[in-house]
User: What shape does this take?
Amino acid sequence: MSQILYLSPGKREQTKAANRVAILDAARAVFGELGFEAATVRDIIRRTGLSVGAFYNYYRSKEEVFDALADDGARRFRPILQALSAKASDFESYLRAAVRAYFDFLAGEQDSWGVDRAPGAPLAHTRNTPEILAVFEEVRRVFADVMDRGLAPKVDLDYLAASCIAVAREIGDRMLERRPLDVEAASEFVVRLILGGVTALPRVEP
Amino acid sequence: MSQILYLSPGKREQTKAANRVAILDAARAVFGELGFEAATVRDIIRRTGLSVGAFYNYYRSKEEVFDALADDGARRFRPILQALSAKASDFESYLRAAVRAYFDFLAGEQDSWGVDRAPGAPLAHTRNTPEILAVFEEVRRVFADVMDRGLAPKVDLDYLAASCIAVAREIGDRMLERRPLDVEAASEFVVRLILGGVTALPRVEP
Amino acid sequence: MSQILYLSPGKREQTKAANRVAILDAARAVFGELGFEAATVRDIIRRTGLSVGAFYNYYRSKEEVFDALADDGARRFRPILQALSAKASDFESYLRAAVRAYFDFLAGEQDSWGVDRAPGAPLAHTRNTPEILAVFEEVRRVFADVMDRGLAPKVDLDYLAASCIAVAREIGDRMLERRPLDVEAASEFVVRLILGGVTALPRVEP
Amino acid sequence: MSQILYLSPGKREQTKAANRVAILDAARAVFGELGFEAATVRDIIRRTGLSVGAFYNYYRSKEEVFDALADDGARRFRPILQALSAKASDFESYLRAAVRAYFDFLAGEQDSWGVDRAPGAPLAHTRNTPEILAVFEEVRRVFADVMDRGLAPKVDLDYLAASCIAVAREIGDRMLERRPLDVEAASEFVVRLILGGVTALPRVEP
DNA sequence: AATGAATGAGTGTTCATTCAT
DNA sequence: CATGAATGAACACTCATTCAT
Assistant: This one.
């Protein structure tokens, strides 16, 4: 006489969650390959086997998935970075840990969604998955904090942070394209480049 | 009743060439502001005073102007870079000259077409002018050549080239956003960072 | 864990009837504010707290509720009108009673569901509640009957009925927009206009 | 050497004008049959043989054709009405002339675009072509003016104007549906009804 | 019965490209 | 060659309706 509502932990909730993730994954791939403008909602849902309508059951617009992607990335990477920042005693160890964490994150991502961006694609009129953007934002923040705490020489903070991020991003991308995948070598490269560079940089007023 | 478009038989060729250039300039500006996808052919021709039809007399498609832009950029920058490469006796002087040339190029471009890309644009759905892409391609090539000629230590060439380009690109962008524009400071930053970094990099087998 | 929706076996039928009415009431409001096309099934059920699915348990389509609304209106108004018609001894008294009844009905409806149709709506894309339409149909029928029974001069019956209905409808609408609401004045206006007009109308062969 | 522009009075301009009108006519018919909401841009262009794109070459939106229709109607009817109003010496002659003009206008319109609204159509969820609305607006204005000049008794102006318009509209519609078309009879009916009615109406303070 | 996610045809609108003039 | 109207595939998004739970 009760329980006519099928509110049970049920398959319903499960498929809902699964679909949400499926759309997010598909969007990640499509935005990564095509960029925001060129990607179409149909491109995204085609990969999920769902219908156009279903897309709009989960996200209110193309823009919203894009943003959700950024949130997702930030949410997953932020804790890792913050833990690192908390226990860092000097610049080198922080940098090494952070780069390593980022590259591991990247390698992990790659496994979870097959990057099949056609190699000869028209020069990727964009890169910058929102997810990656969010991660960078996070890195920049923590990085600024480390400098503030005096764990690194006083150089042009903005330029340095931007450079680190640019290098990590670029080398990260290339690392993913090399076989076998060598996270260790890639992060060592980045860390040494930055560390060596920082010592040579012009100092600025504190 | 007269409607003289072609002032004299001789001017005909001139007009043609001028239109080609006009379209290219307009396209540069529009792609820069809006990105490839969001830019429309009408946006481009509106700035030239020509008609849609005329556009297709000069270029077969929107994609073709985009590519032409890349070619144009490369064509203009390549000689400069090659001259540099030819007279470079060591890595440092080459790097300094190249970075400086690139930054000057950037500063020059900025003047020639008003950068009014809305600063708070929704997460850079734009980016990557074909011209800039071409310049990078060029830098990479010359850079590899310099390494080949033994003017720089044997490190991971690909990673290093990619890193230099990434840093130059990133710092270049930020340089353009700072007031006053300080090309000297920006290039000094990049050069020292790279140079210092290179000495710290792990050597590899030739 | 209990989730009691049907408090007792007996209430079941009551709930069903109540839902039917709830949907009808919501539909009346929504169609009134938005018009048939612009109104969505979701707009309707949102006001009832029911689910989309429930809607289709009670009515087979959006169109069906619309029609049901008309039936409902007619069903409620018909007895009133017929009683009037039965005891009418002359045209004037019938007309006065009918108009008055209609305006009272209108005034009553207005109270029962808040008329918040935006006053400056873009040229009344709305209009014609099915209910009102049905009422008119009813009036026309009785009206023809009255004429048949010789209680009014032989004029162009169709034109006259149509005119009366048009005037009543129009003045009824305007009456509702005036403050204070003056049902008496409005019906007096209509009755006198029609009565005065009828005497001046050209007679036709029976 | 000149005149390469094909600017001649040319077929170009002609077809453009013709298309504009064709779209307007099609829109008139479609909006009349379906109402604004239910009518689709595709319904409209289907009747013209043009393409969807062409529609948007002539009007910026569905809403814009709708408005254009109103403008068109007003533009054509206003002069007629104003001339009438200028030479009217008393209420009766003005009313007769105006009603007659409106009915003639209606009859003329009917010829120019075949009214094939399916007889059993779902109760025309709207009526009110924008064109008709505009004409009414005009009538109302002139009407108020006539009253102001003391050519008619001081009765409830708003109610009276609204009633006249409602009757004219309703009888106009029905007139169009009768065979043979009898404009004379229809306008006589309206004029006498109103005139007779006015004398019976309650007077108001001036 | 009740629920609400899934479906997909359909909507208004844009835009690269073609083509008659 | 220039012109700009015509074309129609495509897009983001909506919504009536169905159906598994």
